[in-house]
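1st attempt posting a full record on here, be nice pls
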Amino acid sequence: QVQLVESGGGLVQPGGSLRLSCVASGFTFRTSIMTWYRQAPGKEREFVAMVGSDGILRNYADSVKGRFTISRDNDKNTLYLEMNSLKPEDTAVYFCSTSGSWGQGTQVTVSS
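the predicted structure (as tokens):
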């Protein structure tokens, strides 16, 4: 079955950086579109970024454009989200997703 395991979250000061990872198994990762979502306390889950199967096509939410970079390593079955210039409003649980399947999420907290 599909398994998605996120890691890399933590507590970081405003302006700091984090890199999230999502290790995938149970499906053909290299042919799958992969997406990052996030959910802040009291808010609905929202789209963050997506990447096509070959890593070339990428889309970002306006709120993270220019600060976050999504990438993938198809040899390692791993999805990444590089997050720079973090803001308190980026605080959320971050999830990776494909075809309706979700990981357990990793908490990102941006606070001084």
